[in-house]
Design a protein that fits this description.
Layout: E1 9-14, E2 67-73, E3 78-79, E4 87-88, E5 101-103, E6 110-113, E7 117-126, E8 129-133, E9 135-137, E10 147-154, E11 161-169, E12 182-187, E13 197-201, E14 211-214, H1 216-220, E15 234-240, E16 244-249, E17 252-258, H2 267-270, E18 277-285, E19 302-314, E20 328-336, E21 339-345, E22 353-360, E23 363-368, E24 372-375, E25 382-392, E26 401-407
């Protein structure tokens, strides 16, 4: 039975008193319900500088625009990949894309020569498959939330190749693929030799409907006249923060996908990118996309040559001075049964907003890194008191925004 719900009263007020609370120290965006009725207090800013934590193997990397290298593989060694940084993902089966290769950890398919990592795809009979290649990832070793992720590489040639530099969630917080998201930093299919793709996949936008763009935008805008991805090294990168993902080719922005606070659906359906993701490098052969125009049997061996892979992050803590501004302009986008989708104007900070604490009837309901939230289980025929508090990365907090929503 469907019943029509009207908002009887939405009253927004400014909080005139200071609330006491326990200090929050987690660096991960949670979605945990709590029964506590305490609110945030001002925390003491942390003083550890990210620059002091640069790994020794990344110490020669230049810091540009505040991007501090926190993880890297420069491939200045010989043999297999560093097992402290990468695991192999071996096997076949098509990986959900009807790919044709069998991934191995053999030196014939992957080798580091002291300067480059080379993934080689071969045409050979192996474990029932006609092609071999390699796939490595940082799953189980390292993962990140937000930052700049960059690879410098020369791509393989030939119709039927499908190299990728991409990210998957460490845990499926919102369910199996694509619900918990996928970030494709660089994808390339051999039948479009000089076109690079960057895409995200989510519950609503996945597969061929994934959101992102390609380097075609750099050509049409006149920033580039041509791209040679097969014979020259180029850098492929994303910058991923709390509210958007940007794709870069040799430092040039070519695509952006951002969280839209006015989308009247649960946040994770469109934006599951508030969790930790790990890195993947692979060279596939064939598949639904890579093999859409067949596989040229004369291209083998074909090589994916990687100069380096780097992860950078910003230091939002050591020089933080100001408290975040108060969230403002709350707006109810949708009411359905005892569920409300509420948005607000994002808080500002001298560095970066980490998250918002959401209280419902003085109970900490959840955290969100974006300025919109779907609130479920609201009380019918009763006032619902909503409190929203912004927090930055050093633990400084805003004055709260309060809303009273009465639903019949």
């Amino acid at each position: 039975m469907t019943r029509k719900l009207l908002i009887v009263m939405i009253t927004f007020v400014l909080l005139l008193t200071t609330y006491a609370c326990e200090q929050q120290t987690s660096t991960t965006t949670e979605s945990t319900t709590s029964t506590t009725t305490t609110f945030y207090s001002q925390t003491t800013a942390l003083t550890t500088k990210l620059i002091d934590l640069i790994p020794s193997e990344c110490s020669s990397i230049e810091i540009i625009d505040g991007w501090v290298p926190v993880w890297c593989d420069e491939f200045k060694y010989e043999g297999g990949v560093n097992p402290l940084k990468w695991n192999h993902h071996n096997g076949g089966g098509g990986f959900g894309n009807n790919e044709l290769q069998y991934y191995t950890n053999r030196t014939e398919n992957l080798y580091v020569d002291g300067e480059y990592l080379t993934i080689t795809a071969l045409k050979e009979s192996y474990n029932g498959y006609q092609y071999t290649s390699s796939k490595i990832w940082t799953q189980g070793i390292e993962n990140w939330k937000y930052g700049k992720f960059e690879m410098r590489a020369k791509l393989p040639s030939g119709t039927g190749t499908w190299p990728a530099f991409w990210m998957m969630p460490q845990t499926s917080a919102y369910g199996g693929w694509p619900n918990s998201g996928e970030i494709d930093i660089m994808e390339h299919v051999g039948y479009e030799p000089n076109k690079i793709h960057g895409t995200v996949h989510t519950n609503r936008f996945w597969g061929s409907y994934g959101r992102g763009g390609s380097t075609t935008s750099l050509i049409t805008s006149g920033q580039l006249t041509s791209i040679d991805a097969l014979n020259e090294f180029h850098t492929y990168a994303i910058i991923w923060n709390e509210t958007k993902i940007e794709w870069y080719f040799d430092g040039m922005l070519y695509a952006t996908v951002a969280f839209n606070p006015r989308t009247p659906l649960q946040t994770s359906i469109d934006w599951p990118f508030d969790q930790r993701f790990y890195l993947i490098l692979n060279l596939a052969i064939g598949g639904d996309w890579g093999g859409a125009r067949g596989v040229d049997q004369n291209i083998f061996p074909t090589k994916f040559v990687i100069d380096y892979v780097r992860v950078y992050q910003q230091d939002y803590v050591s020089d933080d001075v100001d408290n975040p501004t108060r969230p403002t302009n709350p707006e109810i986008i949708q009411i359905m049964d005892r569920t409300a989708y509420i948005t607000w104007k994002a808080s500002m900070d001298d560095n970066q907003i980490k998250r918002y604490a959401i209280y419902v009837n003085n109970i900490l309901r959840t955290y969100t890194s974006v300025n919109g939230i779907m609130l479920t289980g609201l009380k019918a025929a009763s006032d619902n008191y909503i409190k929203i508090i912004a927090e930055d990365y050093s633990g400084k907090i805003s004055e709260p925004l309060e809303a009273i929503i009465t639903i019949p």
